[in-house]
Amino acid sequence: MINVLFVCTGNICRSPTAEAIFRKKVNEAKLGDVIGSDSAATSNHHVGETPDVRAQLACRKRGLDIKEHRAREITSEDFEKFDLILVMDWENLTDLQHRSPPQFKHKIHLLMRYANDYDAAVVPDPYYGLNEGFNQVLDYCTDACGGLLETLERKARMMQKSLQAVRAAEAAKTAQEAQVTTEAESTEETQVSEDK
């Protein structure tokens, strides 16, 4: 499984939006069994809260539903659990680089490094701005999440094939065991009939 964590300051605007976009793209590519995602905050200011209503509205207009999301702060376990930790801006990057154990720092990157169409280094925080900022977040995250999936897809497809092979082998083994059991029961029944 490839696990991706999206991180912003409060986990009520940018990171849940990025997570929703990425999850939709993963599901459309039928890779949900091998790519997982989540989102978190660098701060604890909004823990337990639903996303900003402006973010919810902007997402809803593009067919994304984030209303069930609840903000959470990144944990020390997240640095080990996730394969990629993608942050929205330089402040998030600096914060997580300081908090991460040394062996996991290589996992932390700016999300916009995966963008193809927008030549921006960061996803600006729309919280203190106008509604247009939330549309910009959607545009930037859609672009970057598309590039991210392109980067991960080859490895994910290989993992999916391996998983399918394992499942097929397990199914064949189960079927073989069931056949052996049936044959044994049939032999036992025959033996009982002959004894009578």
Structural features, described:
This protein is an alpha/beta fold. Strand 1, helix 1 and strand 2 form a beta-alpha-beta unit. The chain starts with a strand and ends with a helix. The protein is elongated, with a radius of gyration of 23 Å. The protein has a four-stranded parallel sheet, with helices on both faces. The protein is built from five helices and four strands; from the N terminus they run E-H-E-H-H-E-H-E-H. Helix 1 packs across helix 5. The mean pLDDT is 92.
What brief labels describe this structure?
four-stranded parallel β-sheet; single chain; 53% helix; alpha/beta; 196 residues; elongated
How much is the radius of gyration in Å? 23 Å
Number of strands: 4
Mean pLDDT metric:
92
Order of helices and strands: EHEHHEHEH
Provide the structure class: alpha/beta
Q: How large is the share of residues in beta strands?
A: 5-15%
Distance between the termini: 57 Å
Low-confidence runs = none
Q: What sort of overall outline do the alpha carbons produce when their principal axes are compared?
A: elongated
State the major sheet.
4 strands, parallel
Q: Indicate the percent of residues in helices.
A: 40-55%
Q: What's the tally of helices?
A: 5
Give the strand order, joined by hyphens, for the main sheet: 2-1-3-4
